[in-house]
Amino acid sequence: MKKASLKTIAEKMKNLDFCMMVTQDGRQISHSRPMSNNGKVEFDGDSWFFTYEDSRKVDQIKKNLHVNLIYQTDDMLFIECTGKGEIIKDKDILKDKWVDGLDQWFPEGIDTPGICLIKVTANQVKFWHKEEEGEYNA
User: Which residues form the General stress protein FMN-binding split barrel domain (predicted)?
Assistant: First the structure.
């Protein structure tokens, strides 16, 4: 697979919003669910997702940091991001990452009880788009 720069990956990901986040439980069974990174985010190697601290995915990440993010577009772009998950509760970071519309899930904004962020730091990102493919390694 051809090497790709972070800039190339960021360009491919710039308008992507939803992905499937895959985590593993204590028995090494994979669990996936749709997650939003709030769209139109400049990818710099990290992806950010708001959630609740008492969710199953947070519990799984606390036990096994390995996370996969899988994106697909109607234009046949496929992206797999493999990385390390981290749970963030710092109010300054939550405030910085907050976007309009999140209040439908977090009615008290960043002061919603149990709110946190999942930060996924990419180790590797691969993409396939029609005749093109590439791989970025951090």
Answer: 6-131
